[in-house]
Amino acid sequence: MTTDDPESQTKSFKGRTIVLSLLIFGLLMSGSLYVFQAVNTFHFADTQNALAREFPESRPRVEGGRLKGKPENPPTFRVTLAVPFNPNENDAAIQNMADRILEIASENMDLNQYEQAELHFYQAIPEQTIIMRNVKRDLKTWQE
């Protein structure tokens, strides 16, 4: 083999080609994540928007279904909501918010397909640990 043999030379790419390829790859991945999120939250968009109107600055997140990989778990309706107060110190406010959340959800979607509701309330204080409170409700009992 000689040094002029084209098969022995390594193939090099221009820096511009690599940067452009990485940029296109990043845009493709960002777009696919956006589509994935939009498809998974499409059914809950009306409820999420209604909760955002009812509880301003609460950054609601609504989702539902079974936990992946655990078919024995019941279908669950989940809401995560930011609150401006410590959720562990004001039980009456949390219970009232939980009832109102379920009322809004029942107005905007069919809750009959879920057996339980998980409502997660949190207070995020900058540079401190997030304070969480979880409330579980049996939806069949609540609807009666």
Structural summary, described in words:
By secondary structure, the chain is an alpha+beta fold. The chain is 42% helix and 19% strand. The protein contains four helices and four strands. Helix 2 crosses helix 3 (91-108).
Summarize the structure.
The chain is α+β, with helices and mostly antiparallel strands. The protein is built from 4 helices and 4 strands.
Percent of residues in helices: 40-55%
The count of β-strands is 4
Q: Number of helical runs?
A: 4
Q: Quickly give the structural class.
A: alpha+beta
Strand content: 15-25%
Taken in chain order, the helices and strands follow as: HHEEHEEH
In angstroms, what is the radius of gyration? Answer: 24 Å
Low-confidence stretches: none
The end-to-end span amounts to: 85 Å
Shape: elongated
In which order are the strands of the major sheet placed? 1-2-3-4
Q: Mean of the pLDDT scores?
A: 87
Summarize the main sheet. 4 strands, mixed
Topology:
Blueprint: H1 15-41, H2 45-54, E1 61-65, E2 76-82, H3 91-108, E3 116-123, E4 131-138, H4 139-143
Parallel strand pairs: 2-3
Antiparallel strand pairs: 1-2, 3-4
List keywords for this structure.
144 residues; 42% helix; alpha+beta; four-stranded mixed sheet; 4 helices
